[in-house]
Design brief:
InterPro entries: Ribbon_hlx_hlx, TacA_1-like. There is one protein chain. It is built from four helices and no strands. The protein has helices at residues 17-29, 34-54, 60-71, 78-85. It is elongated, with a radius of gyration of 25 Å. It is 59% helix and 0% strand. It is mostly helical. The longest helix has 21 residues, at 34-54.
């Protein structure tokens, strides 16, 4: 077994009896053990969370448009200008 497939690490967690029963029923429904079901579900969710934070896939056209908008000069926003001209609540 390689290091990536060796099953030597452990993860312990506490949960309510209802959560445990739900997980056990779901594992049985797909024909796997609670451990297999939990590892698969947790890993899939972890990968989803992490990929959302490190991978941004866009078409070349969308990327070019994004770059153009970043490089474009800022334009004034009337509401923001008005807001910044008002006295601050901290000045009172």
């Amino acid at each position: 077994m390689t290091e990536s497939t060796a099953k030597s690490a452990r993860l312990a967690m506490r949960m309510s009896p209802r959560e445990k029963t739900t997980i056990e029923r779901a594992a049985a429904a797909v024909g796997s053990t609670v451990t297999e079901f939990s590892v698969d579900a947790l890993t899939a969710r972890a990968e989803e969370v992490l990929s959302d934070r490190r991978v941004f896939a866009v078409s070349p056209a969308a990327w070019d448009e994004f770059q153009e908008r970043l490089d474009a000069p800022a334009r004034p926003v009337a509401e923001l200008v008005a807001l910044l001209r008002r006295p601050s609540v901290f000045d009172e």
